[in-house]
UniProtKB/TrEMBL annotation:
K(+) 2 binds at K451, G454. The gene is betB. This is Betaine aldehyde dehydrogenase. Residues 16-473 form the Aldehyde dehydrogenase domain. Its cofactor is K(+). InterPro entries: Ald_DH/histidinol_DH, Ald_DH_C, Ald_DH_CS_CYS, Ald_DH_CS_GLU, Ald_DH_N, Aldehyde_DH_dom, BADH. PANTHER family: ALDEHYDE DEHYDROGENASE-RELATED (PTHR11699). Involved in the biosynthesis of the osmoprotectant glycine betaine. Catalyzes the irreversible oxidation of betaine aldehyde to the corresponding acid. The modification Cysteine sulfenic acid (-SOH) is found at C284. Its EC number is 1.2.1.8. Keywords: Metal-binding, NAD, NADP, Oxidation, Oxidoreductase, Potassium. GO terms for molecular function: betaine-aldehyde dehydrogenase (NAD+) activity; metal ion binding. Pathway: Amine and polyamine biosynthesis; betaine biosynthesis via choline pathway; betaine from betaine aldehyde: step 1/1.
Length: 484
């Protein structure tokens, strides 16, 4: 098998296997062929990973931030040097077109390693004068062993978005990739070692939800960062609460994208395409409820369908292809179920809606118009290439409807009215908002959700606060006054 790694897990600087674990077949979504066979972690493997991380963490935290940062930046350089090889692996793991993986996966992971590596030397506490000579100083400390649990849509990126800030702060991480896309996190672990990271500070264990649960509940673990669905988030957050652990929850969404009459129509259509069909729609922050003001509706739908005629669906390894298969047969069937529900509940199918007659898990990009707020496709996260276009008339009306969801991950607005743009964004109940663009996530900017879409933020300087805590030291320069 072409993409078979040396072994399933990477612990303490080396590949480790335990064939007693449940098999995990890695399937290339473009063909359905098995490209690697791994094994879920047994309790012994989980134990090995946590013991190694616990042992390595103290010495790692005792290094200077600059030394830690240098290793992360070196890892970023190695990832960039190997971008093509890593992208080919990512394409086989996820089915995403090479055209995308070359610019959005290892490159985004490298950005995180570089950014947090650069911050390494500046992670400090502060000095707080109190008058009369007394003062407080704070010490920024690592949390200890952190667990990262990933989803399957951006495996390399997620492994690095969690690993880089954790390691920069002096933590060790045990990372469990999604069982659907387990291959690329192993490469991240290998590259960190090659960059000079001490053994054990970034271990990777494979497995299904039970392995994730075993990691989350272990008393040695201080923090859990999950990227996944809301139902999984609920379970993981509750389990972490038992041990009063820190959490970051990056969960699902059903984000609104509002297009006003005065918007630049080409840009709005581009935003809707990026926000619904990139990675075959398997992006958490997608703007899947596209509210289009009545005056521009027909023109918007016409341009959208014209532009969708240019989509190039096919072999994801062909760099001209810009739309690949779904990650798995199961996910494809979930999405097809939603398409049927959309039709049954009265939405008007204006584009796509079918599986392609070829090997692999290919769906057409799909657009429904005349969608109403009560329809299932307008309420539930589909996580596939299905855009719902909804009509609206006034700003007040659309804001109420846009926010009428339990999710709050992202939201976007297209308009040429400057004051309206900022007013609308101020009214959005969402963690990540866009004006006249959609779905960009640079490492310098905080990323995360409100409401049921999550807790905490990834990326930016804010992520540091989620992977470290402050120790407060009160220093008295005076005699101690006691009442008796
Ligand atoms: P999922 O919730 O099924 O699984 C996520 C991860 O959690 C997997 O690694 C899985 O093995 C693990 N897991 C499952 N049960 C667990 C348990 N009880 N304890 C510990 N770990 C457990 O999600 P998925 O299908 O892999 O990914 C799709 C979802 O992820 C979508 O809802 C999407 O919106 C979300 N997502 C969010 C972001 C974000 O940044 N907000 C990014 C990507 C994906």
């Amino acid at each position: 098998m072409k993409f078979q790694p040396e072994a399933s897990h990477f612990i303490d600087g080396a590949y480790v296997e335990d064939t007693a674990g449940t098999p995990i077949d890695v399937i290339y979504p473009a063909t359905g062929e098995v490209i690697a066979r791994l094994h879920s972690a047994t309790p012994q493997i989980v134990e090995q990973a946590l013991t190694s991380a616990k042992r390595a963490q103290k010495a790692w935290a005792a290094m200077t931030g600059t030394e830690r940062g240098r290793i992360l930046r070196r890892a970023a350089d190695i990832m960039r040097d190997r971008n093509r090889e890593l992208s080919i692996l990512e394409t086989h793991d996820t089915g995403k077109p090479l055209q995308e993986t070359l610019v959005a996966d290892a490159t985004s992971g490298a950005d995180a390693l570089e950014y947090f590596g650069g911050l390494g030397g500046s992670l400090t506490g502060e000095h707080i004068p109190l008058g009369g000579g007394d003062f407080v100083y704070t010490i920024r400390e690592a949390l200890g062993v952190c667990v990262g649990i990933g989803a399957w849509n951006y495996p390399t990126q997620i492994a690095c978005w969690k690993g880089a800030p954790a390691l920069a702060c002096g933590n060790a991480m045990v990372f469990k990739p999604s069982e659907t896309t387990p291959l690329s996190a192993l490469k991240v672990a290998e590259i960190l070692i090659e960059a000079g990271a001490p053994k054990g500070i970034y271990n990777v264990v494979q497995g299904y939800g039970d392995v994730g649960a075993a990691l989350v509940t272990d008393p040695r673990v201080a923090k859990v960062s999950l990227t996944g669905s809301v139902p999984t988030g609920r379970k993981v957050y509750a389990a972490a609460a038992e041990g009063m652990k820190h959490v970051t929850m990056e969960l699902g969404g059903k984000s609104p994208l509002i297009v006003f009459d005065d918007a630049d129509i080409e840009n709005a259509v581009s935003g809707a395409i990026l926000g619904n069909f990139y990675s075959s729609g398997q992006v958490c922050s997608n703007g899947t409820r596209v509210f289009v003001q009545k005056g521009i509706k027909e023109a918007f739908l016409t341009r959208l369908t014209e532009r969708l005629a240019n989509v190039k669906i096919g072999d994801p390894m062909d760099e001209a292809v810009n739309f690949g298969p779904m990650v798995s047969e199961a996910q494809m069937n979930i999405v097809l179920g939603y398409v049927e529900k959309g039709k049954a509940e009265g939405a008007r199918l204006v584009h796509g809606g079918a599986r392609l007659d070829r090997a692999g898990f290919y769906l057409q990009p799909t657009v429904f118009a005349d969608v109403t707020d009560d329809m299932t496709i307008a309420r539930e996260e589909i996580f596939g290439p299905v855009m719902s276009v909804l009509d609206f008339e006034t700003e007040d009306e659309v804001m109420t409807r846009a926010n009428a969801t339990e999710f709050g991950l992202a939201a976007g607005v297209f308009t040429n009215d400057l004051t309206r743009a900022h007013r609308v964004v101020a009214g959005f109940e969402a963690g990540t908002c866009y004006i006249n663009t959609y779905n960009l996530a640079p490492v310098e900017a905080p990323f995360g959700g409100s409401k049921m879409s999550g807790v905490g933020r990834e990326n930016s300087k804010l992520a540091i606060n989620h992977f470290s805590e402050m120790k407060t030291v009160y220093v008295s320069m005076n005699d101690v006054e006691a009442p008796y």
